[in-house]
Amino acid sequence: MAGLGTQTAAIGVTGQLIGGAKPTAAELYNGTSWTGGPSVGSGRYGAAGCGTNTAGLIAGGYNGGYLNICEKYNGTAWTSTGTMTNSRYGGLGLAGDSTAAIAYGAASPSTGVTESFNGSTWTNTPASLNVNRGGLQGGGTTSAAFAFGGGTNSNYTELYNGSSWASSTLMPTALGANWGSGSSSAAFASGYPTSFTPGAVNVTQNFTGVAPGSVVTKTITTS
């Protein structure tokens, strides 16, 4: 499924059912329970979501082929919007919301190209991930995004500042298939290594944006 929003106002949408069907259904979460919501126009799995329950965006995915389609949500209904310049499926990163977003990474076809969305059209940017991969967890904003794990059990972490990607603290446990949420200074990732062999673990890891032991400078104001 693609997911977006917060823990008290979230949306889970499309995906793949047992048997292979790809529903267009969406469900809304209010912090306590799930209810049915407006359907998307195109069912698929492997898509990514970002934004809020009043300014949401889903992009990419697979349904008989790799997709570059995008739909945005205004709190009432889903509408088709500009297509990505790259078709992306399988652990692509998506950060921002329906008015301004970036997409990066994918398993198929493997890419590190970053493209930006202005609310209506997508444009490739000069920035690319340092390590091309899918299966990553992405999120954040268009000027402060993150990419965790992915690929073949990678523990690689990259942060985006609005113009370029830079490596950051490695994940303690490498994950090839992971999910999570948050910001570039406070996020979590949870999942499994790519190889589901005996002993494979499901772990949750927190990210603070600061490497353990690093010196942090803060300004204290008194009055």
Tell me what you see in this structure.
With about 220 residues, the chain is mainly β. The protein has one domain: Neuraminidase. About 0% of the residues lie in helices and about 40% in strands. The protein has no helices and 19 strands. The strands form five sheets. The chain has a four-stranded antiparallel β-sheet, with no helix packed on it. Strands 5-6-7-8 form a four-stranded antiparallel β-sheet, with no helix packed on it. The protein has a four-stranded antiparallel β-sheet with strand order 9-10-11-12, with no helix packed on it. The model has no long low-confidence stretch (mean pLDDT about 85).
Distance between the termini: 50 Å
Name the CATH homologous superfamily: Kelch-type beta propeller
Uncertain spans: none
Mean pLDDT: 87
Overall number of domains: 1
- Spatial strand arrangement across the major sheet: 1-2-3-4
Rg to the nearest angstrom? 17 Å
> What's the helix-strand series?
EEEEEEEEEEEEEEEEEEE
Strand content: 35-45%
Helix fraction?
Answer: under 10%
CATH class term: Mainly Beta
Classify the secondary structure makeup into a structural class: mainly beta
Summarize the biggest pleated sheet: 4 strands, antiparallel
How many helices? The count is 0
* Tally of strands: 19
| CATH A-level architecture | 6 Propeller
Find the CATH topology: Neuraminidase
List the topology elements.
Elements: E1 2-6, E2 9-13, E3 26-29, E4 34-37, E5 48-51, E6 56-59, E7 70-73, E8 78-81, E9 93-96, E10 101-104, E11 113-117, E12 122-128, E13 137-141, E14 144-148, E15 157-160, E16 165-167, E17 177-183, E18 186-192, E19 203-207
Antiparallel strand pairs: 1-2, 2-3, 3-4, 5-6, 6-7, 7-8, 9-10, 10-11, 11-12, 13-14, 14-15, 15-16, 17-18, 18-19
